[in-house]
Amino acid sequence: MRAAVSRADNHQDPRYHGSGLLVLADGRVFRGRSFGARGTAIGELVFNTSLYGYQEIVSDPSYAGQIVCLTAVEIGNVGTNPDDEESDKPAAEGLVIRSLSPVVSNHRSTASLHDWLAGRGVVGIAEIDTRALTRHLREQGAMMAALSSETDDVEALRARAAAAPPMLGRNLVDAVTTPARYTWDTPSWGARATPPVAARVIAYDFGIKRNILRKLRDQGIETTVVPASTPVAEVLAARPDGVLLSNGPGDPAALEHVIAALRELVDASERLPIFGICLGHQLLCLALGGQTYKLKFGHHGGNHPVRDERDRSIAITSQNHGFAVDIDSLGAGATLTHLNLFDRTVAGLELDGRPVSGVQYHPEAAPGPNDSDRLFERFAAKVRDHAAR
Ligand SMILES: NC(=O)CC[C@H](N)C(=O)O
């Protein structure tokens, strides 16, 4: 009988540059085949359980400073395309997968995952036992790692991973926020009808995903995106009908200037609608005097159940965060509106009697289920009310 030859032994495979090495800060080593950009990526290694949406995940600036391991087994089969880009800013540092699809088949595809990663400078590694890796991260927690296509020096990579700055305390927003303001006017891909612009919102860009802007446009809202350092007085002078606080990378507690600015924003007007998404939600809570903490391995996936505490309905949500809000640190005046049913952490809250709220998950669902579209509908209704005054 012929011995089975694993795909990893086929050195002629054009999908790969050659061998690749993934070394965790605790010394665990995974060997695979490298694709995408050549080089070495250092970052916090996290796993994401979404079944689809690899392009949106890798191009989400919330992943800046992180290497993402996808638990879905076959990756790359629908290629990549410009419409599904979540940002052109720095995002994931590296991508770890089990199997890189030998076939790219989709009518929207303009580039293979390999070429697209190479163009973005993202180092990829395939043929990794992602199940063993994920179990390790679940047990030990997310940790720093080095991923390389250029060296076989395990100890040097381990030392680099161990010496890299940890996610706790890291400000990564300055690297991904827009340098200049711009206005977004494109609806979702495939949107049937786009309502006329009925109101205008300003979005603080902490690493914004385009699908947030598309979903707002679908609701008749035109959004002006501004740098994270924009003074509150400048935002208010533009007389927006609402303010969106975007998602983004790093530790929210490290953003002291932003927190101080948001405190000023919340205090400035009782009537201005404010909606925070993920990092924006965390920053809102910090501005209200609350605290955040680091989760062991975070929530990264497309099937996390969240309960709306007002009507007890459950939404399956898209999530991507490593930090969470400590509900006990928030005083009176804020009410828990959404609860994560996986671990009962805070998934959303609202200021009593005010149009100010935030959610820890991703209602823009890129990738993910659209269960939470109604959050954009609710914010848009408040914004339109404000515009009508
Ligand atoms: N998606 C996000 O906005 C992530 C928020 C934050 N960086 C965290 O990891 O918790």
UniProtKB/TrEMBL annotation:
<dbReference type="GO" id="GO:0006526">
    <property type="term" value="P:L-arginine biosynthetic process"/>
</dbReference>
<dbReference type="Pfam" id="PF00117">
    <property type="entry name" value="GATase"/>
</dbReference>
<feature type="binding site">
    <location>
        <position position="250"/>
    </location>
    <ligand>
        <name>L-glutamine</name>
    </ligand>
</feature>
<keyword id="KW-0067">ATP-binding</keyword>
<comment type="pathway">
    <text>Pyrimidine metabolism; UMP biosynthesis via de novo pathway; (S)-dihydroorotate from bicarbonate: step 1/3.</text>
</comment>
<feature type="domain" description="Carbamoyl-phosphate synthase small subunit N-terminal">
    <location>
        <begin position="18"/>
        <end position="148"/>
    </location>
</feature>
<keyword id="KW-0055">Arginine biosynthesis</keyword>
<dbReference type="GO" id="GO:0004088">
    <property type="term" value="F:carbamoyl-phosphate synthase (glutamine-hydrolyzing) activity"/>
</dbReference>
<feature type="binding site">
    <location>
        <position position="282"/>
    </location>
    <ligand>
        <name>L-glutamine</name>
    </ligand>
</feature>
<keyword id="KW-0436">Ligase</keyword>
<dbReference type="GO" id="GO:0005524">
    <property type="term" value="F:ATP binding"/>
</dbReference>
<dbReference type="InterPro" id="IPR006274">
    <property type="entry name" value="CarbamoylP_synth_ssu"/>
</dbReference>
<keyword id="KW-0028">Amino-acid biosynthesis</keyword>
<feature type="binding site">
    <location>
        <position position="279"/>
    </location>
    <ligand>
        <name>L-glutamine</name>
    </ligand>
</feature>
<feature type="binding site">
    <location>
        <position position="62"/>
    </location>
    <ligand>
        <name>L-glutamine</name>
    </ligand>
</feature>
<dbReference type="GO" id="GO:0006207">
    <property type="term" value="P:'de novo' pyrimidine nucleobase biosynthetic process"/>
</dbReference>
<dbReference type="InterPro" id="IPR017926">
    <property type="entry name" value="GATASE"/>
</dbReference>
<comment type="pathway">
    <text>Amino-acid biosynthesis; L-arginine biosynthesis; carbamoyl phosphate from bicarbonate: step 1/1.</text>
</comment>
<dbReference type="InterPro" id="IPR050472">
    <property type="entry name" value="Anth_synth/Amidotransfase"/>
</dbReference>
<protein>
    <recommendedName>
        <fullName>Carbamoyl phosphate synthase small chain</fullName>
        <ecNumber>6.3.5.5</ecNumber>
    </recommendedName>
</protein>
<comment type="subunit">
    <text>Composed of two chains; the small (or glutamine) chain promotes the hydrolysis of glutamine to ammonia, which is used by the large (or ammonia) chain to synthesize carbamoyl phosphate. Tetramer of heterodimers (alpha,beta)4.</text>
</comment>
<feature type="binding site">
    <location>
        <position position="323"/>
    </location>
    <ligand>
        <name>L-glutamine</name>
    </ligand>
</feature>
<feature type="binding site">
    <location>
        <position position="322"/>
    </location>
    <ligand>
        <name>L-glutamine</name>
    </ligand>
</feature>
<dbReference type="InterPro" id="IPR035686">
    <property type="entry name" value="CPSase_GATase1"/>
</dbReference>
<feature type="active site" description="Nucleophile">
    <location>
        <position position="278"/>
    </location>
</feature>
<feature type="region of interest" description="CPSase">
    <location>
        <begin position="1"/>
        <end position="199"/>
    </location>
</feature>
<keyword id="KW-0665">Pyrimidine biosynthesis</keyword>
<feature type="binding site">
    <location>
        <position position="320"/>
    </location>
    <ligand>
        <name>L-glutamine</name>
    </ligand>
</feature>
<feature type="active site">
    <location>
        <position position="364"/>
    </location>
</feature>
<dbReference type="GO" id="GO:0004359">
    <property type="term" value="F:glutaminase activity"/>
</dbReference>
<dbReference type="InterPro" id="IPR036480">
    <property type="entry name" value="CarbP_synth_ssu_N_sf"/>
</dbReference>
<dbReference type="InterPro" id="IPR002474">
    <property type="entry name" value="CarbamoylP_synth_ssu_N"/>
</dbReference>
<keyword id="KW-0315">Glutamine amidotransferase</keyword>
<dbReference type="Pfam" id="PF00988">
    <property type="entry name" value="CPSase_sm_chain"/>
</dbReference>
<comment type="function">
    <text>Small subunit of the glutamine-dependent carbamoyl phosphate synthetase (CPSase). CPSase catalyzes the formation of carbamoyl phosphate from the ammonia moiety of glutamine, carbonate, and phosphate donated by ATP, constituting the first step of 2 biosynthetic pathways, one leading to arginine and/or urea and the other to pyrimidine nucleotides. The small subunit (glutamine amidotransferase) binds and cleaves glutamine to supply the large subunit with the substrate ammonia.</text>
</comment>
<dbReference type="InterPro" id="IPR029062">
    <property type="entry name" value="Class_I_gatase-like"/>
</dbReference>
<feature type="active site">
    <location>
        <position position="362"/>
    </location>
</feature>
<feature type="binding site">
    <location>
        <position position="248"/>
    </location>
    <ligand>
        <name>L-glutamine</name>
    </ligand>
</feature>
<dbReference type="GO" id="GO:0006541">
    <property type="term" value="P:glutamine metabolic process"/>
</dbReference>
<dbReference type="GO" id="GO:0044205">
    <property type="term" value="P:'de novo' UMP biosynthetic process"/>
</dbReference>
<keyword id="KW-0547">Nucleotide-binding</keyword>
<comment type="similarity">
    <text>Belongs to the CarA family.</text>
</comment>
